[in-house]
Amino acid sequence: MLINLFVLPIALAGLLTFAPGQVDSDMYVLALPLEGPLQPVHHRAFVGGLSAATAMVIVETVALAIMVSNDIVDAARAEAARDLMGGARASAGCS
Fold first, then answer.
1. Is there a contact between 33 and 46 (Cβ–Cβ < 8 Å)?
2. CA-to-CA distance for 15 and 23, rounded, in angstroms?
3. Three-class HEC string of 13-82
4. Sign (positive/negative) of CA torsion 64, 69, 73, 75?
5. Residue 91: what are its φ and ψ, rounded to 5°?
6. Is pLDDT at 77 greater than 80 in this prediction?
7. Could you say which of 3, 22, 88, 91 would form a disulfide bridge with 18 (CB–CB 3.0 to 4.6 Å)?
8. pTM higher than 0.90 for the full model?
9. What is the pLDDT of residue 23?
10. Alpha carbon separation from 11 to 1, 17, 53 (Å, rounded)
11. Are 87 and 95 in contact (CB under 8 A)?
């Protein structure tokens, strides 16, 4: 919840700085530093956004790998083990 503290000031600054339709409201974080003399702030905002996007892709890839492992690989391995044990019981005359 604390991260949302910065949303309102950025939105208000964007509304006061840009004419309606000039800049998409999603781009205020990147467009505001470009309007002023603070180019390093723009670069930091871009690198921060790129870092966050990269981290999201990594987390989603790990989550997808875990889901595939749990739902497909482990299920197939359990079924193969069950078939193997069932075959051993049938050959020993136990059912």
1. no
2. 9
3. HHHHHCCCCCCCHHHHHHHHHHHCCCHHHHHHHHHHHHHHHHHHHHHHHHHHHHHHHHHHHHHHHHHHHH
4. negative
5. -75, -20
6. yes
7. 22
8. no
9. 92
10. 17, 10, 21
11. no
Both tokens of 21, joined, read 């339709």
Domain ranges (residues) in the chain? 1-36, 39-95
Q: Identity (one letter) of the amino acid at 92?
A: A
Q: Token pair for residue 57?
A: 């892709």
Tokens of 58: 């990594």
Alpha-carbon gap, residue 71 to 63, rounded angstroms: 12
